[in-house]
TrEMBL record:
The chain crosses the membrane at residues 32-56, 93-116, 128-148, 160-181, 201-228, 282-301. InterPro entries: MetI-like (IPR000515), MetI-like_sf (IPR035906). It is found in: Cell membrane. GO terms for cellular component: plasma membrane. This is Carbohydrate ABC transporter permease. Residues 93-298 form the ABC transmembrane type-1 domain.
Amino acid sequence: MANTTIQARTKVGARQKKKADYNAISPLWNTLFNILIGLFAFSCVFPFLFVIIISLTDEQTLVLEGFNLFPSKFSFAAYEYIANSGKSLLTSFGVTVVITVVGTVLCLVLVTTYAYAVSRKGFEFRGFFSFLAFFTMLFSGGMVPGYIVMTQFLHLQNTLWSLILPLSLSAFSIIVMRTFFQTTIPDEIIESAKIDGAGDILTFIRIVLPVSLPGIATIGLFASLGYWNDWFNALLYYNNPERIPPLQFMLMQIEKNMDFLSKNAHNIGSYDAIANLPTETVRMAMVVLATLPIVMAYPFFQRYFVQGLTVGSVKG
């Protein structure tokens, strides 16, 4: 009995000593981890801050001093050059906003309904449609068939739908949402809703969607980024100069025009004015204008984005 008591006291003492040692080391490790995470976060944000600084640098100062965190002279000439495009730039920004909002909503509707159907065990053809979505991730028809379908069969050239439909259904998003539904929505909840008299559509709207906000926000963020950064579809389907293209394509056109003027300055009048065009700073200003709206919107989706990734990755 005495030996047992001594052993118990020894174990308690060792446990207390181990806990005391952990408490003594823990603040140090917490400080080190916080420093490392802070440095990593700063390394992610720093390039964008550096781009903003360059876009606000005077072009001649940039040529003489190079890329500098603390330039000797600041200037808004790059943004003024872009703003001289007139109302077309503002209209192009509005076109991009419309495409992003409508396309994201359409993508969420198509992806969530498709993924929910193939995630339910009671759906007879879920294996076929899951394979169909996965197959398109490996093999696609290519650019030429897509162009023929969009222009010859659907006759959507030079319309906003030609920029919305190609990105409206993503096989990757379907796989992610299917996994999210399988790991988040128990079959018992669906069965209890059916017992209460709810149909499939009512169950999906009233029960499934409210608890699927993390996954929906994740897919919505992916779709928004895709639509906002898309310029290739405008290059394919927009050939009418009277139609205002989206922002990314408009910025690309401004950059091409500026490069053309710079390279052919000798053959054009007003050589000094053309030679002083803010070429490098305009490129950085374009990056800021194209990225800043998404950067500002991301914090609102961050919490749902992290939850969606972690929950959706539990089960493959």
